# Entry
Amino acid sequence: MKYSIEEIAQHCFEPLAPRFAKDVRPGDVVVGGRNFGAGSSREQAPAALKALGVAALIAESFAGLFYRNALNLGLPAVVCKDAKRIRQGDALEIDFDQAVVTTPREKLGFEPIPPHLMQMVRDGGLLPHLEKRLKCRTTS
Amino acid sequence: MKQTLAQKLVARAARRGSVTPGEIVTCKVDLAMMHDSGGPRRVKPMLERLGAKVWDPSKVVVITDHYVPTYDDESRRIIRIARDWVREAGIDNFYDEQGICHVVLPERGHLRPGMFAVGGDSHSPTGGAFAAYMFGVGATEMLGVLVTGEIWLKVPHTIVMDFDGALERGVSAKDVMLFLIGRFGMDGGEYQALEYRGPAIRRLSMHERMTLCNMTAELGGQTGLIASDQVTEDYLKFAIERWESDTDAPVLAHHRFNASELAPQVAAPHSPANSKAVGEFKEVRPTVAYIGACTGAKLADLRMAASVLKGRKARMRLMVAPASARDVQAAEQEGTLTVLRDAGAEFLGLGCGICAGYGGSVLGDNVVAISTTARNFKGRMGAASSQVYLASPYTVAATAVAGRICDPRELVH
# Structure
């Protein structure tokens, strides 16, 4: 409201990587270190990444609140202790069922996202997921 | 099976006899708290899209604290949405401009030991001071709670922070927490449950316990808990259940410290994890001292500041934003506010204020401030070039008087 998410997104990671919002492309994966997303409960953090078209996040660990928010917005967040082995520019394939990230050099396992959360992510996040559930309830 | 306090609280909410750390359970929510920023203005449009209603309006509490006092058309609009929505949704538990949500919630008797609660704010672990399992959620997750009355949880492990001895005069819960964050880092809590124990914790007032549990957010825990006791009951003024960990319940880690040895702590810009003993910062000369926020301007905090400021004058701009209307009233009656006023404090409105970057008093370019708030991330309290040091109300008051960062143990009355 105060600022649209598109406007906020233009400042995403600004203090760390001033060109990030300009350089990121839809389908890109953002790879981070420890405690990715530390701070506020505000969803603008994952929402901005989503607005820029980021397809998934991989990190050694996530701040818990950010992790929940990302999944709730339909942005998959993968906890991979080997995230550091991924290099800038790598083409990645993430297999959520097998819990494997494939880089041009190797396969890295990760903690599988619990099935009920993965279903919510596939539905596009908690809001569309609830919408689907409520609709089912009405029809049955 | 021996259970920790966290496991017992989660098991109760999951309607189970016991739970195991790591398993995923669905919990019934006893209480959902929202403020004006992440609350009605975000959840109202989503509820409308779903055509859904609040599952149980009696279990929802709404508190305006972020955009108050209102200062422009946008903030007035946001507050109006909150006021209109509570009426439409039939929510009677509405506290408008009565102070900061984490302080107002227990003050008005909404928390009690044994509860399972969520708050639309990252500092919601404050509720853990009352032996309630409380944690922060984002707006979409809050929507899920409002529609279903439930939330999923990965049962946490417990990390125990055990403090023997007693804090020296002039040392407070804020110092304990800054020390822990400096020692373990902002992800030291691993999104598990922190439990604060030991004689030094038992001696803390509820306001200090709240400061400790609140900043579990900065320590990276999901919630921060303290077993309920006589101190809890005396604060709440109604009979409570005793909730505590079983003796010898298995925990992830048990860290032991001697509180008597702890010096006041200060965290340098731009992270609460940059904390060291106050003596390391003697050369820093802030120009603004800020006593505010849920972790730094409750009645107990105002008293700490007053115990240093009594009969002295601040040598820099000293701003005080009290945490709640009731605390202001009590502080006025007992003379604490007079002490602060006589020291040269200027008073700001009730609310989150500049801790969250709101209002007209945010920090300008290159301002160096010392603050009782919870986090000093770059640009949070104003200009990106401003520098914020975090400290206890004692230390902020001592610094205001000394003109440089100062150990309050030298000055406390």
Chain A has a mean pLDDT of 94. Chain A touches chain B through 29 residues (CB under 8 Å). The two ends of chain A are 37 Å apart (CA to CA).
